[in-house]
Amino acid sequence: MFFHNFKYSLKTLFRNKMLIFWTFAFPIILGTLFNMAFQDIEKNEKLDLIDIAIIDNDYLKNNPLFQETFQVLGEENGEEQLFRIQYVEEAEARELLSKNEITGYLVLEGINHPKVVVNHNGINETVFQSVVEEIIDIQEILKNVSGKWIQDNIPDLTQDINSGIENFDSWYTVIYQDIMKMLDEENIRIQDTSSDHLSYTMIEYYTLIAMTCLYGGILGMSAINQCLANMSSNGKRVSVSPISKGKLILSSALASYVTQLFGLLLLFLYTILVIHVDYGTNLPLVILLSLVGTLSGLSLGVLIASVIKSNENTKVGIMISFTMLGCVLSGMMGITMKYVVDKNIPIVNKLNPVNMITDGFYSLYYYDTFHRYYFNVISLLAFSFLLIGISAFCLRRQKYDSI
Amino acid sequence: MKNVVEVKKLTKEYKELKAVNDLSFEVKEGEILGLLGPNGSGKSTTINCILSLLNFSEGSIKIFGQEMEPDAYKLKEKIGVVFQDVAVFEELTVIENIDYFCGLYIQDKGLRKRYVEDAIQLVGLEEFKKFYPKQLSGGLLRRLNIACGVAHKPKLIILDEPTVAVDPQSRNNILDGIKTLRDQGTTIIYTTHYMEEVEILCDRVIILDRGQIIASGTIDELKKLAKLEEKVTVEVMELDSKYIKEIGEFKNVEDVTYHEGILLITYKKGKNNLVELMDYLKNAKIQYNKIFSERPTLNDVFLELTGKELRD
Amino acid sequence: MTVFKTFLKVLKSCKGTIILYSAILIFFAVFNTTSGDNTTNFVAEKPDVFIINQGEREGITKNLIQYFEENANIIDIKNEENAIRDALFYRDINYIIYIPENFREDFLDHKNPTIEVKSTGDYMASLADMMLERYLKLANIYHETFASEEEIIENLNKTLSEKLEVEVTSKLDTDHLTQIANYYNFANYSLLAGCVFVICMVLFSFGRDVVRKRTIISSMNYKKYNRKLLLSNGLFAVSLWAFYVLVSFFLFGSSLFTIHTIFYLINSLIFTFCALSIAFLIGNLVHNREAINGIVNVVALGSSFLCGAFVPTEYLPDFVLKIAHVLPSYWYINTNERLKTMEVFNFENLKPIFLNMGVVILFILLFVVMMNFISGKMRKTNS
């Protein structure tokens, strides 16, 4: 009996081509679009060449430090190229700036008075600024270190001014070279221990998986509507047959569960093989999470189908609304959303099944321990069983006031 | 004979409206009971209450001597239902649909296969086994609908207006099918608002209006209620009012009307009324195109009892 | 009139979904205006740094922390492994500096201690990285020359405090304009999803076979019938737009009283009509309730992602933007983006904006023509 209904439910679902196409295809289409939109976003976080201008005046010509530094940083295809530099008059630089063709320009307004002009605050502006500041640093270092030298050598200087100056000159050359060498050398020790798994766009794909899991509820809903006397004439016919409603709904729900898992499998294969989404290394746990996640979607569909006494439009609407809201909160339309909600109103996302799934994948990808993962899996199971319990309670011996 | 269905003092209210009001009747084993009434008279509501799909405020329903409940599965096994709306899966073929619904009752595969074939034969869908419902005409779809409801060979079959909007050929097929089922010993409840069908099929009829029984009995019993025996219709181009008066004074005549060339005479009882009338017309040299006599119908009964037509 | 009445009836059954799409938009806008998050909003120039000092806050260590306090945003989060990990992943912090226990002593002993860091590897992180490198290099250099810790710190701070004069030319309140532009960009999703969902549901209900047959044989001809439906749906779409505009005034208040706003409004109104025509076209093509869900998601989410409604356009790869040209959302969002940085409203500057609007209008015409063609054709094949 159970298998009989299961077999036919499966047949009915798979022959509804529109339904199958859209439930299977749309996450794949969305995944492709995500991939198109995001493939550069993290690469782009590394610096591009910045367009700047430098005002070509006498102060610049007399300042070898600035001249040489920017020559190196602006050398076409040079190893250290950071800028694309135009040497122009100030009026022209202003014109370029107003057209947004350059990030900003540098003008030396005195021997030791550089100025940077930019349109607004921003990354490129800040990079430009800090390069100029670094050159100023070098000037400062030279000033301070040579000041110290003079101080230390004052007795010599008073004895013989000429030789002192001579000494200073040769010493200055040495110290200049020393300092430049020190600056060039990577003698400082900074150890970067960041995880490799920092690609936050992964969250987008996780929300996509979560969304697909939850939308499985729509399949469950339409399968169950076929068993309910107040939703369809088929439901009336099924209701008068000698089968317990629990058995019937269970097997219909199982059929839509299997169908949805099939769709999810396609999505997994696509995201892994074609767009290379990283689900971490623990495949059995990924599968477990998908099974549990799909179950939560199914239970939501069952709950809406059985508890809410309204037409199908409204039921579908509620299902979509709930899922989309869950997706937004777990970061589909901007990953920061998930973080802000997690941090400030954690209870919301602890109750949000989309986030439980997303967070489960996230913790598999990014965490080394499994506490957080299992917490999510258990939450999902609790969520599912609670909903199924409520539905079962509502459906028990159900008669209607009107059909 | 045993009572298969016993309905006692059934009352069902929708907010203000009493859809079924203090209804009591029983259905005897092996008979076809007709539930007749205009749209909205409470036929489908009664059926849904019997099937325990609807809550009802008062009364009790027993089937095969047992209280009917949503989880009275043993009881449900013996019942087959054909609803007003076509209830089949668009995604399944004719044979799959029948097999699906039959499978909810019959577990044994071999037996089920035979039953499905029988059902197909019963409604004459042999040529359409592999068709999808979309490809079937309205009449064929109705036949499929019936096959789905009765394939498991139930002891009690409830048919709720199975012939609404069906072409004559399919209708005959359906009615023949129902007769076959009756001959096999099945008890049948049949609701409709077509009295011809009731007259052909039913052993006993209950006439419902506004949720109440206004008459019940065998067809002959009911027809007596109509207080008339014969209706004669004559098409006459012109007729002087003096003739109308004279005809009105004939023996057994209840009423005479003449309207737009149609002369309608109703007789309380009697035989050979037509011969007498024809003789009179011949003697009075009245030219007429057509003359015919009718026995009273259930519509006349209904008209007599409620003052309105059954068909709206 | 009957068309309109039926329309309202169907609309009522979709009200939950309409409320949802609006709620998402408003939620997003509030979220975007109140939290200075940095993934959608890259104008902040200071990196967010979290410092874990395992030693004492004294001498060179104290000075290092002070330097970051002055030049970066020190983020205050719970010093918990999970909280820190999450913060780093979601770019709440760009850079974590672990100052080892014996940093100060080892530094003064010329042991050149190692500092452990965690970084998100993005722009902001590399800024923080540059700052740390700069500090440590200077400290090392001065340590070569000066013996005492005080002298080192004094010289270090003198050098670090040497400020560069920076002139910022723009007078625009870019923060606010960015928020407004983001709001209207996001409305791309809400308008599209809302219109397509509702209108498909409406047409689905109207298009059910029986109803369709009845309307085909009714005295109304199908063009007039389509027009009436279009009018009802148009009314709905415009109300939705008006509501979003109202919300934007509520959210952004007085900062909307600029000439920019007029263009934002015109632009979004035109786009609303475009969403309407898209919805109508889809509604005429598809008659399956379960499928609507998938279609809404592909159309609304898809074009929002591809055209930069969620992700700023400058982060989209070039070829995606080229593909996006075939979608009306691209032109709509492009206008919003241009307005964001527009200072002078003259013909020269506005030309591309008018061009964008023109393209969107062309899209509307195209969709309307396609719709009439399709619904005419379907009517014939179905009858």
Descriptive report:
In chain A, strands 2-1-3-4 form a 4-stranded mixed sheet. Chain A has 2 domains: 2-41 and 200-395, no CATH class; 48-182, D-Maltodextrin-Binding Protein, domain 2, CATH 3.40.190.10. Chain A has helices spanning 2-15, 17-38, 58-61, 64-73, 90-98, 123-152, 154-159, 161-184, 202-225, 233-239, 245-273, 283-307, 312-329, 335-344, 346-350, 353-366, 371-395; strands at residues 50-55, 83-88, 104-108, 114-118, 190-192. Chain A is built from 17 helices and 5 strands. Chain A is of the alpha/beta class and 403 residues long. Chain B is of the alpha/beta class. Chain B folds into 2 domains: 3-224, 3-Layer(aba) Sandwich (Rossmann fold); 226-306, Alpha-Beta Plaits. In chain B, the strands form 3 sheets. Chain B has a 6-stranded mixed sheet with strand order 6-7-8-3-9-10, sandwiched between helices. In chain B, a hairpin with a 2-residue loop joins strand 12 (253-259) and strand 13. The mean pLDDT of chain B is 85. Chain C has 383 residues and is mostly helical. Chain C is built from 15 helices and 5 strands. In chain C, strands 2-1-3-4 form a 4-stranded mixed sheet, covered by helices on one side. The two termini of chain C are 25 Å apart. The model of chain C is unreliable at 35-44 (pLDDT under 50). Classes of the chains: A alpha/beta (403), B alpha/beta (312), C mainly alpha (383). At the A-C interface, helix 2, strand 4, helix 6, helix 8 and strand 5 of A face helix 2, helix 4, strand 4, helix 6 and helix 7 of C.
Helical content of chain B (DSSP H or I, runs of 4+): 25-40%
Give the number of domains of chain B.
2
Q: What would the average pLDDT of chain B be, to the nearest integer?
A: 85
**What would CATH call the architecture of the largest domain in chain B?**
3-Layer(aba) Sandwich
Task: Tell me, briefly, the overall form of chain B.
Answer: elongated
What proportion strand of chain B? 25-35%
CATH superfamily of the largest domain in chain B: P-loop containing nucleotide triphosphate hydrolases
Q: Give the low-pLDDT segments of chain C.
A: 35-44
The helix-and-strand class of chain C reads mainly alpha
Order of strands across the main sheet of chain C:
2-1-3-4
CATH class of the largest domain in chain B, named Alpha Beta
**Number of individual domains of chain C:** 2
> How many β strands of chain B by DSSP?
14
Order the strands across the largest sheet of chain B as they lie in space. Answer: 6-7-8-3-9-10
Compute the CA-based radius of gyration of chain B: 23 Å
Distance between the termini of chain C: 25 Å
* Percent of residues in beta strands of chain C: 5-15%
